Amino acid sequence: xxxxxxxxxxxxxxxxxxxxxxxxxxxxxxxxxxxxxxxxxxxxxxxxxxxxxxxxxxxxxxxxxxxxxxxxxxxxxxxxxxxxxxxxxxxxxxxxxxxxxxxxxxxxxxxxxxxxxxxxxxxxxxxxxxxxxxxxxxxxxxxxxxxxxxxxxxxxxxxxxxxxxxxxxxxxxxxxxxxxxxxxxxxxxxxxxxxxxxxxxxxxxxxxxxxxxxxxxxxxxxxxxxxxxxxxxxxxxxxxxxxxxxxxxxxxxxxxxxxxxxxxxxxxxxxxxxxxxxxxxxxxxxxxxxxxxxxxxxxxxxxxxxxxxxxxxxxxxxxxxxxxxxxxxxxxxxxxxxxxxxxxxxxxxxxxxxxxxxxxxxxxxxxxxxxxxxxxxxxxxxxxxxxxxxxxxxxxxxxxxxxxxxxxxxxxxxxxxxxxxxxxxxxxxxxxxxxxxxxxx
Length: 441
Hints:
- Keywords: Signal.
- The protein is an alpha+beta fold.
- Helix content is 19%, strand content 22%.
- Among the domains are: 1-132, no CATH class; 269-317; 332-440.
- Strand 21 and strand 22 (315-317) form a beta hairpin.
């Protein structure tokens, strides 16, 4: 069938090609015009091998006095230009798929494009749209693909102002993602429609110039930030004194939230080591909260337990406890100063019973929390008052004892005098009795 602008190419075996003549059998020096009035039957049918030595134009847009461009060997010229590749294989297992090269769409509003069409599936797997820039797709001799460059340096090399790769699900069930450069040159992975600061991943261009690997995932699945040799599931390494982890939550209203959650089949621990001194501390919690100390890299079981808080709230400290200082509420040791206005025992007693607590200690409600450091300082102040009062009473007691000793000495002296007088009286009485007896005789 004569179809303007279309060439039918059939896959044929040509065993007679080697025996083909070197020149045409009939020569026409002034050209040949072939036509008839039956468009349903081909005007020209050549059953044997044919050679066209010169430029060829096919299609109803060709004219006998208008030659193709001097560098054009074959020109297809028509309102709708296509080339069909029809496979006539009939043997079982042979490929038979038919293909088409298609140029532009018919009708108003169609696409200016060059496409490869799968005629059997009626799909168009490959298209170049009109107006595409130079080197939109380039495959070099090594098989490297360049998008926007004729010098691809890797298997896929993309060049553009801010090149972006878009990943979109065919059914739009899942959101699309863009991978590319931002306007500032940062690398990002961003969900379609997200703003700059909603990107799922951003690698800042300044980070890559520091000589460190911004993000690295090794064969074990360990993630390195700043290191290509991560030794833990997450390994952060810096060399500019900025290494840190920050967890920040802006949700309102304000309230307690879990920002770090550690779960373990056993006591989870956090280790803090000083690589310059070799010292290392760890703290962990499970049934009890425990603080330990050891050397860098030492096992938890070899560290020394220094502090423990039990579920009952009891705290166990293996060393001494030193606080940062007290308020005392009255100057603590100032009670021993000469200018300190020390109340008398009676005044202090009256005040204590009037307030219902030691004046400087303050009230201590049952079950209510209190500042142990401040309370201890105030108790010390009251204890110093008490010791001063004890010293005063001791002085009074010693004075009373001295008076008692003097009174005792006086009584003893008087007793000796009375004893002596009694002895003298008894002696005199005996002598008097003796005299009276003599006189009676």
